[in-house]
Amino acid sequence: MVKLDDRPAQDGPEPPNHWSGLPWLPDRPHLNPRPLRLHLRSTWSPAQVAVEGLPSAALCLVGWLDAQQAGQSSSGDHLIQIQAEPGTAVHLASLDGKLPPQLQHLSGAPGAYLLPAGWLDRVRLIGAHPSDGSGEASRTSLPVVPLMLRCGGARHGTDGLPDDVVRWPRRTSAAYAVVAGPPEGDFLPILARRPGVRSGHRLIRFRVEPGYAIDVTATAARLATLTSVRSRITDLRASGVGLMLPRRAFGRVPITRVFEASGRSWRRYRTSNSMSE
Q1: CA–CA separation, 94 and 107 (whole Å)
Q2: pLDDT exceeds 80 at position 245
Q3: 120 in helix, strand or coil?
Q4: Where are the alpha helices (DSSP H) in 12-92?
Q5: Is the pLDDT of residue 142 over 50?
Q6: Sign of the Cα pseudo-torsion (223, 230, 104, 21, in order)
Q7: Rounded to an integer, what distance in angstroms lies between the CA atom of residue 185 and that of residue 123?
Q8: Whose CA is closest to 213, among 175, 179, 255, 258?
Q9: Alpha-carbon span 163 to 155, nearest angstrom
Q10: Taking a C-beta distance cutoff of 8 angstroms, is the pair 192, 254 a contact?
Q11: Range with the lowest mean pLDDT among 72-86, 119-133, 162-176, 184-198?
Q12: What is the spatial distance between Cα 243 and Cα 241, in angstroms, rounded to a whole number?
């Protein structure tokens, strides 16, 4: 049960002066007026969470005042205990009607607080214990470090990126991919313009409907200020990926032309039906 003095007042503390990472969050959300201890369930071990962060598809985490509620809220073998500084945890019930689809199942949940990714620098790990109810008797001590969020499990299927990526294109567009064989991995690097010839490769031109691909460059800019978020974005940018097509979208992208390298030019090779072939 939520204690009355744990409910944040509407005229409570001001939010931190840096971006929360959640564009849908109100400018003046209902925040915790005093330090708040919460429980978060995790499939990762406490030691792994302390080093790598807590996995999440969304750019936020959900903590619970009551350990039993946390244990019932999602799957996981461990309960991670954290302390949020005043003005950093959003009373989730106050966001009823404002939550995005992936969080709608928590709408109106009593005793639940939202921890935006941009404010995790003011949230500290304080301990953990198994979710089997053994509690303090089996508590694990953790270094008192800021809680981090590890991107994973997003609906688009590309590991290491959050659900909230910048989508591409805005309107149906042609795109290109240079390949040496069948696409491997969970995404395909793509280009908005026809590239120069690469010996031993083929060039695929296909049609992309609005939002089917991910703008990696714009997503990197969006995540740049979220210092508590661990993602794959830095490695992608370092390898030169500016746009990507998630593997889950391959079957929804019709190929319009295929070319092969021929000297200094691309020569038409054949036409196929989709990127999944």
Answers
A1: 9
A2: yes
A3: helix
A4: 46-52, 67-73
A5: yes
A6: negative
A7: 34
A8: 175
A9: 6
A10: no
A11: 72-86
A12: 6
Joined together, the tokens standing for residue 78 give 């461990």
Q: Which residues contact 100 (CB under 8 A, 6 or more apart)?
A: 24, 58
Query: Rounded to two decimals, what is the model's pTM?
Result: 0.85
Collapsed DSSP state (helix, strand, coil) of residue 269: strand
User: Which residue type sits at 264?
Assistant: R
Reference 59, options 108, 102, 14; nearest CA is: 102
CA separation for the pair 156, 215 (Å, rounded): 13
Question: Which ranges constitute the DSSP H helices of 37-101?
Answer: 46-52, 67-73
Angstrom distance (rounded) from CA 25 to CA 187: 30
Residue type at 67 in one-letter notation: A
How far is residue 199's CA from residue 210's CA, in Å, rounded to a whole number?
A: 31
Q: Tell which residue, 180, 184, 67, has the closest CA to residue 130.
A: 67
Q: What are phi and psi of 247, to 5 degrees?
A: -55, -35
Nearest CA among 52, 46, 7, 48 for reference residue 30 = 7
User: DSSP for 162-193?
Assistant: -S---EE-SS-EEEEEEESSS--SSEEEEBSS
CA-based nearest residue to 18, from 98, 123, 88:
88
For 9, which DSSP code?
P
- The amino acid that residue 247 corresponds to is R
110 CB-contact burial (10 Å; exposed 0-12 / middle 13-18 / buried 19+): middle
Residue with tokens 């109810």, as numbered in its chain: 133
Tokens of 220: 């990197």
Calculate mean pLDDT across residues 256-267.
Answer: 93
Q: Look up residue 252 and give its amino acid.
A: R
The bridge status of strand 90-91 relative to strand 54-56 is: unpaired
Give the tokens for residue 226.
């979220």
